[in-house]
Amino acid sequence: MPSCLFCQIVAGNIDADVLRIGELTLAFRDIRPQAPVHVLIIPKEHLANVAELTPEHGPLLVETAGMAKWIAASEGIAESGYRIVTNTGPDGGQTVDHLHFHLLGGRQMTWPPG
Ligand code: 5GP
Ligand code: ZN
């Protein structure tokens, strides 16, 4: 999937501010942050969105949750709190078709999202 932007980041062909590399996942800062902390956690494997997850992806989701917890601690927002969001399809606001989880924190989040 050479045309996929996030696959290119995983491959190291496009620069990103990478915070942590896991066995199955990669975490890097969003290029247009929507909060003081805005990190994307993605699977190294290309999956378009959550609709492509299967039972075999259990370890991937567990690693994603652990990655979020580790980043929240290292960014100093473990206690103040944070939000994890994944957008799917046009109405969900998905603009990059490689599964990614937004980790947002460092300010009060609003609900419901716009
Ligand atoms: P989506 O809109 O699909 O939920 O989220 C895609 C996210 O990827 C956006 O928040 C956008 O700012 C981020 N993004 C798009 N291109 C790049 C890039 O080249 N590098 C990084 N680090 N983030 C990107
Ligand atoms: Zn991809």
Task: Explain what this protein looks like in three dimensions.
The protein has 3 helices and 5 strands; from the N terminus they run H-E-E-E-H-E-H-E. The chain has one domain (5-105): HIT-like (HIT family, subunit A), CATH 3.30.428. It is 25% helix and 22% strand. It has a 5-stranded antiparallel β-sheet with strand order 1-2-3-5-4, covered by helices on one side. A hairpin with a 3-residue loop joins strand 1 and strand 2. It starts with a helix and ends in a 9-residue tail after the last strand. The model has no long low-confidence stretch (mean pLDDT 97). With 114 residues, the chain is an alpha+beta fold. It has helices spanning 5-11, 58-74, 89-92; strands spanning 18-21, 25-29, 37-43, 82-85, 101-105. The structure holds guanosine-5'-monophosphate and zinc ion.
Topology:
Layout: H1 5-11, E1 18-21, E2 25-29, E3 37-43, H2 58-74, E4 82-85, H3 89-92, E5 101-105
Antiparallel strand pairs: 1-2, 2-3, 3-5, 4-5
The chain binds guanosine-5'-monophosphate and zinc ion.
Task: Give a brief description.
With 114 residues, this protein is of the alpha+beta class.
Characterize the largest beta sheet: strand count, sense, and whether it forms a barrel: 5 strands, antiparallel
Number of strands: 5
**Rg computed from alpha carbons, rounded to a whole number of angstroms:** 14 Å
- CATH homology group: HIT-like
> How would you sum up the global shape?
globular
Helix content: 10-25%
Total DSSP helices: 3
Residue stretches low in confidence (pLDDT < 50, at least 5 long) are: none
Keyword list:
114 residues, alpha+beta, HIT family, subunit A, five-stranded antiparallel beta sheet, 5 strands, globular, binds guanosine-5'-monophosphate, binds zinc ion
